[in-house]
Amino acid sequence: MEKAFPMDSSGKSEVVHDLPPWLRVYKDGTVERLSGYEVCAPGLDPLTDVLSKDVMLVQETGVSARLHRPNVIPKGQKLPLVLYFHGGAYLISSPWDPTYHNSLNKLVAEAKVVLVSVDYRKAPEHPLPVAFDDSWDALKWAASHTSAGSGSEPWLLDNVDFNRVFLAGDSAGASIAHQLMIRSKNEKMMMKLAGMILINPYFWGNEPIRSEVTDTFRKALVDKWWAFVCPSDKGNDDPLVNPLAAGAPSLEHLQCEKVLVCVAEKDILRDRGVLFYESLEKSEWKGKAELIDVKGEDHVFHIFNPDCENATNLFKGLASFMHGQI
C-alpha cells in the first residue's frame, strides 16, 4: 500500500476514485490499495502438510503463480490439477495474500490435488481484459506440460493427471474460469478440462433480479465497481460479467462434463449464481450441473474464515465434486 499521496493546493490528498473497501485512486494516478496487499511466503504448512512454491509463468508479462500440493505424494500417483483464479473485483489480492494461501492449503489438503493459484495483473493499472488474457496464458502454460508440450515444472510433470483438470475460482476469479472454459472451445489443449468450479461467481446484469431489487445499497456498490474496472457501453450486460446477456457465448459451448456452482445465502451475488445454474440446467449443454447453497454466510466466507464449519464442509464438497462423488 502506498504511504505517500499526492496533495492538492490546500495540502489535502486529492482522491479522484474512491472504491471502498478496495482502493483509492489519486489525481496523479497513484493507486492506494486498502486491502489484499498483504503477502506471505510459500513453504511447508505444518497445519495442513501442504507444500507450496512460487513460479514464473510468463516472463514477458510477469504473470506468475503459487503452486500447492500435498507434501507427500505416493510414487507414481497422479493427482487432479486445479487452475485457481482468486477474487478481489479484479482490483486487489494475489496468490500470496495470506487469506488465499491459507484457504487454498486447506482445499489442497482435503481434495488431494495439485493447485496452480494464478497471479493475473489487476485493474486499474492493467484494465480488463488483461486479467482474462493473463489467465489464458496460465492455462496454456499448464497445457505445455502434457506429453506433447515443452513445460518443465516437475510438480506438473511428475504429479498431475492431465485427464482431470479443473478450472476454479471465487468471485471475479470464477468469472475468469467461466470465460476460459468458453474460450477453450476453439483450442486444442492436449489435456482434458474435466470440470469447472464457480464459488460465489461475480456475475451481474443491468436489470436487477430477485434480492437486487430491494438491496439497492449493495447493488449500487457492485454497479460502481464494475463500471470502474470495465467501462463500456454495455454496462453490466457486458458478457465478461453477464454470461446470460444478449450476445454472450452460448452455455452449450462450455468445454467440460460438469460444473459446480457455490453460492452463499447472504451474498448480494447469490441470485446471479443461482440464475446461472438454473440457466445451465435448461440449456443445450450436455454436462451435469451441481449447486451448493451455504446458509448463513456471505461472499467468499471460506477465504476469510477457512476454519469455520461451513468452510470445512464446502472444501469437502469441492473435493467430492473433483473426485466424482457428487
TrEMBL record:
Limits of the Alpha/beta hydrolase fold-3 domain: 82-302
GO MF term set: hydrolase activity
Gene3D superfamilies noted in UniProt: alpha/beta hydrolase (3.40.50.1820)
InterPro entries: AB_hydrolase_3, AB_hydrolase_fold, Carboxylest/Gibb_receptor, Lipase_GDXG_put_SER_AS
Enzyme active site: 171
Pfam families on file: Abhydrolase_3 (PF07859)
Family in the record: Belongs to the 'GDXG' lipolytic enzyme family.
Name of the protein in question: Carboxylesterase 2
